[in-house]
Design brief:
This protein has 15 helices and no strands. By secondary structure, the protein is an all-alpha fold.
């Protein structure tokens, strides 16, 4: 009996698709055009910030003689005058209070609105969610006049609530749109196991869903805080009393009062934007994680 020895045949070489190979090389190696556009965008974004920061370390004579150059010598009095000014800290305190109230309202009511839209099944759920989506089409500036009249009739002018509540209301659509897919991505097995252990839906919401929704809530919270900190139009109409004005209004007032002090205005502007910038950069990783969870959902 003869044994059959298998004959190994050389595998045929398959030529890769040239178009697929070009796409893979473009994504793996990096496209120089994409990097060039990215560098242009970064330069256009950072150039005004760097100019303002360095301009605050210069004197008005230096700015007049050579508008674009490094400080020589470095002048610290512009920043020290702003830091030692009581009005700056009053503006900063008002902005902090308004931003914290806006953020708290957005996060609390946003998660409460997104939870039933994500975890409950009822008639008209998608239609109700569509209302929040349509809310993205109407920015605050569109309804600024009737909104001001409503705030005035409620007696909330020159009050932090007159600014914080409308800002939170117009931030809720984006909050719900971000949180709903994030909550839908959480496994249903967790809710079923909690219900089997005797937990109610409210108990599941407080004990399990809220801790797992941390990245999403941080994302919407940071976005709401930064938007409220930089808000200008609504505080301009609602806050007429200088003692209740926020930091963006303080920058405008300081620029008007010290129109000839360009270096001082640049220093005031730089210090006004630092808190929101630091807050955003500190939480940027959590923002990315929250948005990734919303996209996956």
């Amino acid at each position: 009996m003869t044994a059959v020895v298998p004959v190994s045949r050389p595998e045929e070489s398959v030529e890769p698709d040239p178009q697929r190979r070009r796409r893979s090389n473009a994504f793996s190696g990096g496209n120089p055009l994409v990097y060039g556009i990215a560098l242009v965008v970064v330069a256009a974004t950072l150039a005004p910030v760097i100019y303002a920061v360095l301009g605050g370390f210069r004197s008005n004579a230096q700015l007049a003689s050579d508008p674009v150059s490094f400080p020589d010598p470095w002048v610290l009095s512009n920043y020290t005058n702003v830091i030692t000014s009581p009005s700056f800290w009053r503006f900063a305190l008002n902005s902090t209070i308004v931003s914290l109230i806006t953020t708290a309202v957005v996060v609390v009511f946003g998660i409460m609105a997104a939870y039933p839209l994500a975890r409950y099944t009822f008639k008209g759920r998608e239609s109700l969610f569509l209302v929040f989506v349509l809310g993205l089409l109407f920015p605050l500036t569109v309804a600024i006049i009737p909104l001001f009249l409503m705030v005035r009739d409620l007696g909330l002018t020159n009050s932090v609530w007159g600014v914080a509540l409308p800002q939170a209301a117009f931030a809720l659509p984006m909050t719900v749109v971000i949180l709903r897919p994030f909550l839908m991505a959480l496994p249903k097995e967790l809710e079923e196991a909690a219900l089997l252990d005797g937990a109610s839906r409210i108990g599941f919401f407080w004990r399990i869903l809220l801790p797992l929704s941390g990245p999403g809530m941080v994302t919407v919270g940071v976005l709401a805080f930064v938007a409220s900190w930089n808000a200008y139009l609504l505080p301009l109409l609602v806050l007429n009393n200088p003692s209740s004005q926020t930091l963006p209004l303080g920058v405008a007032s300081f620029s008007t009062e010290h129109a000839q002090d360009t270096a001082g205005v640049l220093a005031f502007t730089t210090l006004a934007m630092i808190p929101a910038l630091v807050f955003f950069l500190t939480a940027q990783k959590r923002i990315v994680n929250g948005l990734q969870g919303a996209v996956k959902g």
